[in-house]
Amino acid sequence: MAEINHFEYGWITPALSYALSVLGSVLGLIFAGRIRAASSAGQRVWWGLLAAWALGGTAIWTMHFMAMLGFAVAGSRIRYDVPVTVASALIAVAAVGIGLAIVGTGRLSVVRVLAGGLFTGLGVAAMHYTGMAAMRLNGQLGYDAVRVGLSVLIAVVAATVALWLAVTVRRGAAIFASALVMGVAVNGMHFTGMSALSVHVHEQRGEVAGAEVGALLIPIVLLVIFGVVGLVYALLAAPTDEDRAAAAYLEARRAPASAVSGQAAIDSPDPVGLRARSTLARPGAPFPSRRDHPPR
Questions:
Q1: Which of 67, 75, 148, 186 lies at a CB distance of 3.0 to 4.6 Å from 17, suitable for a disulfide?
Q2: pLDDT for residue 192 is more than 90
Q3: How many angstroms separate the CA atoms of 4 and 157, rounded?
Q4: Which residues contact 107 (CB under 8 A, 6 or more apart)?
Q5: What is the DSSP string of 162-186?
Q6: Please, are residues 53 and 21 in contact by the beta-carbon 8 Å criterion?
Q7: Alpha-carbon dihedral angle through residues 119, 54, 148, 138, given to the nearest 10 degrees
Q8: What's the pTM?
């Protein structure tokens, strides 16, 4: 059995993975809080997609990949199957999105939260082990069933708590505190699942196919940067409650003023018939006949 090192670069990778999970959780909780406050189905879908990307893509999947940078196996190089790695990211985003759809629509209930948490937690666990299956090395992977089951249980509990927080937490301090807790839960699930792994290195070493970590690191880092910038921009560009209230107030002020000005124009004297002439001058207006003019 080969020696496994989960922290090849010390505490840099777990610290970065925790920071990413907290950042994604903060953004995801803010977006999820706007799902129920949305006034239309289109807005709910929009905020749901952003929340799914923030939680599933940033808080869970990029955290997983960042933690994997510190994973090393003695006696074998590690590479990754790119399509399977991409599939793991899609699984994470889709699982969170469906979970948010379950708890974010209709009347909130315990059954909805539990069902959404179960589905999302199983999806997160599937993302983790799909990402592990994307590894290519000169050996065979093995898993301890008890620890795998424990990691799945942690994923379900963490997802249930995350969805409940997503639809109940509103204040800034509470959102940040909840994100700190979610970061601990996500990282706890990841490293519990990693502790279940064992590797039996083959004696005859062959060429390992797949992409190296360095080749994937740059595009993933760019994806994280542009993704976070896009999420923050979408949050800042969205109208707030104060903006909507101000717009409604201005519209209410504008409507009576336009009505009064229109009525004043109708009631004003027109001794020479300018208003009638302007009406007749419009395209399509009927041409006056002799009956319309009184005899002289």
A1: 67
A2: yes
A3: 28
A4: none
A5: HHHHHHH--SHHHHHHHHHHHHHHH
A6: no
A7: 130
A8: 0.76
Tokens of 188: 């706890």
Total H helices, total E strands in the chain:
10, 6
Q: Which of 39, 67, 53 is closest to 248 using CA atoms? A: 39
CA distances from 255 to 244, 248, 267, 268, 276 (A): 16, 11, 19, 20, 26
Contact of 98 with 123, CB cutoff 8 Å: yes
User: What is the helix (H) or strand (E) element at residue 134, kind and residue range?
Assistant: none
| Cβ–Cβ < 8 Å for 28, 178 | no
pLDDT one-digit tens code per residue, 241-288: 665 566 666 777 776 655 555 555 555 555 445 444 444 444 555 545
Burial 38-73 (b: 16+ CB within 10 A, else e): eeeeeebebbbebbbbbbbbbbbbbbbbbbbbbbbb
Q: Looking only at Cα atoms, what is the longest distance across the chain? A: 120
Identify the CA nearest to 189 among candidates 160, 162, 163, 150. Answer: 150
- CA dist., res. 286 & res. 279, Å (int): 10
Q: What is the pLDDT of residue 33?
A: 81
Buried b (16+ CB within 10 A) or exposed e, 162-199: bbbbbbbbeeeeebeebbeebbebbbbbbbbbbebbeb
> From the CB of residue 295, how many other CB atoms can be counted at a distance below 10 Å?
4
CA dist., res. 165 & res. 158, Å (int): 10
Q: How far is CA 206 from CA 46, 82, 268, in A?
A: 48, 20, 96
Q: Is 110 exposed, middle or buried (0-12, 13-18, 19+ CB in 10 A)?
A: exposed
pLDDT value, residue 246: 64
- Strand 197-201 and strand 4-5: pairing? unpaired
